[in-house]
Amino acid sequence: MREALTRYEVIGENGEYALLRVQPETGRTHQIRVHLKAIHHPIVGDKLYAPNHPLALGISRLGLHAYSIDLPLSSGSRTTIVAPLPDDLAPAFALFPGACPALKLCI
């Protein structure tokens, strides 16, 4: 079995849902999804790892967004790629207004 490590921080809560900042330290298949299911907090819309949980928060797909990815370059330097929040996830993120500064992403 290969080791996998995921770090997470709760940056917003709204009733039965939480908004997390997640940082996988390893790169295993479905790592974030598997780890969140293992602690009984599956991702909204995860039909594979939480098929009995209904879609919620106005999200019609997997509620997972890679805001930024830091990659090593062959030159030895690093580059960070930032992706804006998709329009279809904005209503769900708006339910966590206090999380905006922590995300460095405002709606």
Describe the structure.
This is Pseudouridine synthase RsuA/RluA-like domain-containing protein. Residues 2-37 form the Pseudouridine synthase RsuA/RluA-like domain. Pfam families: PseudoU_synth_2 (PF00849). GO terms for molecular function: catalytic activity, acting on RNA; pseudouridine synthase activity; RNA binding. With 107 residues, the chain is of the alpha+beta class. It has a single domain (6-103), classed as Pseudouridine synthase, CATH 3.30.2350.10. The protein is built from three helices and four strands; from the N terminus they run E-E-H-E-E-H-H. It has helices at 31-38, 90-93, 100-103; strands spanning 6-14, 17-24, 68-72, 78-82. The strands form two sheets. It has a two-stranded antiparallel sheet with strand order 1-2. Strands 3-4 form a two-stranded antiparallel sheet. The mean pLDDT is 88.
